[in-house]
Amino acid sequence: MKTLTIVWQRLVDAGGSTCPRCEGTEQSIEQAVERLKAALVPLGVEPRLETREITPEAFKDRPLESNRIWIDGQPLEAWLDGAPGASPCCDACGDAECRTIEVDGAIYETIPESLVVRAGLIAASRLLDPTQPGSGPGCC
Fold first, then answer.
1. What is the reported pLDDT for 97?
2. Strand partners, 6
3. DSSP 94
4. Which residues pair with 54 in a beta bridge?
5. Does this model's pTM top 0.90?
6. Is the model more confident about 12 or about 30?
7. Structurally, how many domains does the chain consist of?
8. Nearest Cα to 7, choosing from 28, 34, 29, 38?
């Protein structure tokens, strides 16, 4: 069985808390992985979620690394012809500009399940047929 690796990282403070947008993304990504498993395991592709924590110290230096998702080694936005952005956050993030993503003209602070599923399906199609034209991110 082939593995579709999904990596998500977010800030976790000393008390184990994160911000509301990362909490929302966590729920979305867990649901998305379950939907992807249901669709892809019968095709021989197993989605696996890896969650990473960013310390407050690392976050201060690179706040746009929080709430970031990679699918099969590529940023989520690359699979969707999207772009990263930033907007003020709250709670654990303080007043930092935190990561957003723009896809199809919409800006998301919390990454919705539908975007993760969509990107996962595109990435899985490449795993199933690596010669398929246009299946990789940034392609024609």
1. 82
2. 49, 71
3. T
4. 11
5. no
6. 30
7. 1
8. 29
Segment holding 104, helix H or strand E: none
Residue 140 belongs to a domain: no
Residue type, 19: C
What lies within 8 Å, CB to CB, of 31 at 6+ separation is 113
The tens digit of pLDDT for each residue in 16-25 reads 888 888 889 9
Q: Calculate mean pLDDT across residues 26-46.
A: 96
Does 120 map to a domain? yes
d(CA 68, CA 103): 14
Tell me which of 2-16, 41-55, 80-94 is least confident. Answer: 80-94
Q: Is residue 136 part of a domain?
A: no
Mean pLDDT over all residues of the chain? 88
Nearest to 67 by CA among 122, 121, 7: 7
* Number of other residues whose CB lies within 10 A of the CB of residue 12: 19
Domain range for 99 = 2-128
Confirm whether 96 is domain-assigned: yes
